[in-house]
Design goal:
This protein has one domain: Vaccinia Virus protein VP39 (Rossmann fold), CATH 3.40.50. The N and C termini lie far apart (about 40 Å). A seven-stranded mixed β-sheet has the order 3-2-1-4-5-7-6. It is built from five helices and seven strands; from the N terminus they run αβαβαβαβαβββ. α2 packs parallel to α3. The chain is of the alpha/beta class.
C-alpha cells in the first residue's frame, strides 16, 4: 500500500488504481526522489504538474510537502477517480484546495494550457508502451510551460533509453532504482 511519506498529510494511505493499468511509484523510489528534490529546493511553494498521474501519488506528496498548487492530469476514468480521492485527502489535510484533477489526455491538456500556465516542477510517468517519439513530442509541448528554474522528472523502465529531450530542455542527472529509472531535466 502506497502512502504519503512526509509533510502535513504524511502517513496517510493513498487509494490505488485497481487492475494493472498503472505502475505506482514505490515508496522507496518516492523517498529517494523527494530527498533529491528537497536538496534542489524545488518543492516549497512550487507550481507542480503531474502528467500521466495514475493515483496522483507524486503530486499529492508535493502538496503535502509545501507545493503551492498541483495539477494532476490523468485520462483513464478509474485512475482519475482515484486521483480525485487522493487529492481530496490532501486538500482536507492542508485546509485548502491545492490539488486539482484534470481528466484529460496529456497532449490535449498541454495544448489547452495558455501561455500563462507555467510550472516549477513536472513529473511524467507515462505508460511503458508509450514510445520514445510520443514522449519526445509531449516534452516538446511541455517546454514552453516551464519556469526558468523548473525541474522535470521522467520516470521510465530502467530498460528504456534516455528520453529525446527537446532543444529547450537538457538532462542534468539520472538515477536507477531496480526496474525504475528517473531522468532529471531543466530548461536549457
Amino acid at each position: 500500500m502506497s502512502r504519503i511519506i512526509a509533510g502535513v498529510a504524511g502517513g496517510n494511505p493513498l487509494a490505488s488504481v485497481p487492475g494493472t493499468a498503472t505502475r505506482p511509484t514505490t515508496d522507496r523510489v518516492k523517498e529517494a526522489l523527494f530527498s533529491r528534490l528537497e536538496s534542489l529546493a524545488v518543492i516549497d511553494d512550487a507550481r507542480v504538474l503531474d502528467l500521466y498521474a495514475g493515483s496522483g501519488s507524486l503530486g499529492v506528496e508535493s502538496a503535502s510537502r509545501g507545493a503551492r498548487s498541483v495539477d494532476l492530469v490523468e485520462f483513464d476514468a478509474r485512475a482519475s477517480d482515484v486521483c480525485q480521492r487522493n487529492a481530496d485527502l490532501v486538500n482536507q489535510s492542508v485546509g485548502t484546495k491545492k490539488v486539482s484533477v484534470h481528466r484529460s489526455k496529456v497532449e490535449s491538456f498541454l495544448e489547452r494550457a495558455g501561455d500563462a500556465s507555467v510550472w516549477d516542477l513536472v513529473f511524467l510517468d507515462p505508460p511503458y508502451p508509450l514510445d520514445e517519439p510520443a514522449l519526445g513530442a509531449v516534452l516538446a509541448k511541455l517546454a514552453s510551460h516551464l519556469d526558468e528554474a523548473a525541474v522535470v522528472v521522467v520516470e521510465r523502465s530502467s530498460r528504456s533509453p534516455e528520453p529525446a529531450w527537446p532543444e529547450a530542455m537538457e538532462c542534468f542527472a539520472h538515477k536507477k532504482y531496480g526496474e525504475t529509472k528517473l531522468w532529471f531535466a531543466e530548461p536549457a
